[in-house]
Amino acid sequence: MMAAFAQVPAGDPVSSGIETPTTEAALVRATLDGDAGAYADLVHMHSRRVYNYIHQMTRQVQDAEDLTQQAFIKAYASLHRFDTERPLINWLLTIARRCTLNHFRAARRWEAISEDVASSVPSPSESAERRDQVESLWERARRDLSQREFEVMWLRYAEEFSVEETARITGLTRPHVKILVFRARHRLMKGMAHP
Question: CB count, 10 Å around CB of 109?
Fold first, then answer.
């Protein structure tokens, strides 16, 4: 099973094509029936989004790679509990979030990551002006928002999850997600008006 992880580096820019739930469900069933190649396909299908999500929380390439692998190992061990009627990525991001929070609890450095460390990892797309503007906006959001507000904003706007999906991933209620999004947007708009 570990061979599946070795074939797909966590930071590998894989296709983000959306797979149909039927295909995902078939791959999950095949994995549960012992087909390691089917799980490798699931890893390949979702590793980029899981890695990006974890990297946004940790801002450390090595930690993001390690935690992505850990999340997929935990997902494999618990795959028999997955409801194939739901999108797999939501479930994977919930596991990734828990792995990341456990990592921070163990290291006691959730708030200890300085901006210098976060900015020391060069962006692979620095030459693209549009992407730079988006990254600059996310950096401002990281600096100005609480960790919870940033996480909810990332899931809603970068990952384009619905309020309900964001609530499910973060373990919050839908109204709480809406409040956090409202506050975060208000704080960012206010910060842009007064740089």
Answer: 14
Question: Do 153 and 86 sit in the same domain of this protein?
Answer: no
Residue type for position 70: Q
- The answer to whether 104 touches 110, Cβ cutoff 8 Å, is yes
Q: How would you class 161 by CB atoms within 10 Å of its CB: exposed for 0-12, middle for 13-18, buried for 19 or more?
A: buried
Instruction: Convert the pLDDT of each residue in 124-169 to its tens digit.
Output: 444 445 666 666 778 888 888 898 999 999 899 888 899 999 999 9
Is it the case that residue 78 has pLDDT exceeding 90?
A: yes
Pair 191, 135 in one domain: yes
pLDDT band at 108 (very low <50, low <70, confident <90, very high): low
Instruction: Write down the pTM of the prediction.
Output: 0.60
Of 64, 57, 68, 63, the C-alpha closest to 147 is 57
Other Cβ atoms less than 10 A from the Cβ of 73: the count is 16
Q: Nearest-CA neighbor of 11 among 55, 73, 74, 59?
A: 55
Pair 69, 77: CB distance under 8 Å: no
SS3 label, residue 178: helix
Rounded Cα–Cα distance for residues 37 and 64 (Å) = 24
Q: Tell me whether residue 119 is in a domain.
A: no
Q: H-helix or E-strand containing 95? A: helix 88-107
